[in-house]
Specification:
The protein is an alpha+beta fold. It has nine helices and 20 strands. Strands 1, 3, 4, 5, 9, 10, 13, 18, 19 and 20 form a ten-stranded antiparallel sheet that branches. Strands 2-11-12 form a three-stranded antiparallel sheet, with no helix packed on it. A three-stranded antiparallel sheet has the order 6-8-7, with helices on one face. A hairpin with a 2-residue loop joins strand 19 and strand 20. Helix 3 runs parallel beside helix 7 and helix 6 runs antiparallel to helix 7.
């Protein structure tokens, strides 16, 4: 349940930043998240548009939905926020008392039973770890914590520190047993980090809550992870703008329409460390143990949020050609990649990604 001081806030417009995405309104508006459709009452559907936001999972969570009245909208949004709060208690690596951190402490060479939610996320994480050849790896916790401290102290980790942390990272040392829903870590010192998959899953779960409440058209955004169901009245989808990483370039870079699906981004526009004339992303390459320097942005569209989130992380880390090959093998998924070069940026689009962004791509 939500604590009294954490009740949802209703807005007439969504105000603050969401990494790389913008839901575009047909009026002048400077925030990075708004959405494209007529405001107010839709007479044919008798549904009103409501917006809500709250802080959860280390980011601003926003819900845009259509409901018959204010009470229905608020009740549905509260239920969705409460579901996200439940998942945060299970999946957070920031909360010392979370189920995830408990598992890191207690499951070393000793199988531990976990909740269905955590087991499902770990299963999906293993799936995408295998698909990406370890480019996506939720055992990357030791490296994430090392670089998090480096950003806080404005200094690069030493080679010895990186090597020590990297030695603890290998998704293959995570053993899952589906019949018993147990998890075991094969090496002491391993730590999970679900930052590349948990928000997408939370968005999926929140959408299911809204559907159960009778909401037919809704959008949920957790930072750079967006999940939608249905479409706003009178339009064919939710128009989402992709942010330009070049501060001197056009804004937005391009737009896509989303219906009954998800879109996620990973990139270094807002979280990075600069040291020695080099820019290091908060996204870490598991094999090297070093923050990325070339992947300015990776956008993935998929059928659900957990897939979009994990794939966006994986493709950020993988070589461009390998990432595009992977995304083509995943049914219903597509990607748009922005890579930083010495002379600016290069753009790459998978075949299924909407062609509006392909017009600026240097390679398809």
């Amino acid at each position: 349940m939500m604590r009294p001081h954490q009740r949802l806030i209703q807005h007439s417009s969504v105000l603050t930043r969401c990494s790389h995405f913008r839901l575009a309104l047909p009026v002048a508006f400077s925030s990075l998240i708004v959405f494209s459709s007529a405001l107010g009452v839709d007479q044919a559907h008798s549904a009103r548009r409501y917006e809500y936001s709250i802080e959860r999972m280390g980011t601003r969570v926003r819900i845009v939905l259509y409901a018959q009245d204010r009470l229905a909208g608020e009740g549905a949004a509260n239920a969705a926020f409460e579901r996200i709060e439940e998942l945060e208690q299970a999946l957070s690596d920031y909360r010392e008392e979370s189920e995830l951190n408990w598992l890191s402490r207690e499951a070393v060479n000793r199988p531990q039973g976990v909740s269905p939610e955590l087991f499902y996320v770990l299963e999906q994480a293993q799936k995408y770890s295998r698909l990406s050849g370890g480019g996506f790896d939720i055992s990357i916790g030791p490296l994430v914590r090392l670089w998090r401290e480096a950003r806080r102290n404005h200094r690069l980790p030493t080679a010895a520190e990186i090597a020590e942390a990297r030695g603890l990272v290998d998704y293959r040392n995570l053993e899952l047993d589906a019949p018993t829903h147990t998890v075991m870590l094969k090496r002491p010192g391993m730590q999970f980090d679900l930052g590349g998959i948990a928000k997408g899953y939370a968005a999926d779960q929140a959408i299911e809550v809204l559907r159960a409440r009778g909401i037919r058209a809704a959008l949920i955004a957790l930072g750079g992870d967006i999940r939608v169901t249905g479409t706003p009245p009178g339009v064919r989808g939710w128009k989402i703008d992709i942010e330009n990483p070049d501060p001197h370039g056009r804004a937005p870079l391009c737009s896509v329409m989303l219906k009954d699906g998800a879109i996620s981004t990973s990139g270094d526009t807002h979280q990075f460390l600069e040291a020695g004339g080099q820019r290091y992303s908060h996204i870490i390459q598991p094999a090297s143990g070093v923050g990325l320097s070339a992947a300015a942005g990776t956008t993935v569209m998929a059928r659900d949020g957990i897939s979009a989130d994990a794939l966006a992380t994986a493709l950020s880390v993988m070589p461009t050609d390998g990432g595009l090959k992977l995304i083509e093998s995943v049914e219903g998924a597509s990607a748009f990649l922005i890579r930083r070069t010495a002379n600016g940026f290069e753009y790459f689009r998978s075949r299924r990604f909407p062609r509006g962004c392909g017009e600026i791509s240097s390679k398809e």
